[in-house]
Amino acid sequence: MTTWEYATVPLIIHATKQILDQWGADGWELVQVVPGPNNGLVAYLKRPTGEK
Fold first, then answer.
1. Phi then psi for 34, rounded to 5 degrees?
2. Can you list the domains of the chain with their CATH numbers?
3. What is the pLDDT of residue 51?
């Protein structure tokens, strides 16, 4: 069974693509983007931990 680790990442509107590209290059998969504080956005990401 796959186990997962999770991260929440604040997104800066003018750099959203670069932020998500960097996390994706590190093996993170985008799960959802939701409204955050101060009219910002927060991304929820996951990746397998490697444990079985």
1. -130, 160
2. 4-48 (3.30.70)
3. 62
Render each residue's pLDDT in the chain as its tens digit; 52 residues.
889 999 999 999 899 999 999 999 999 999 999 999 888 999 999 999 976 5
β-pairing, 4-11 with 41-48? antiparallel
For 1-4, the CB contacts below 8 A with 24+ separation are 1/52, 2/48, 2/52, 3/48, 3/49, 3/51, 3/52, 4/46, 4/47, 4/48, 4/49
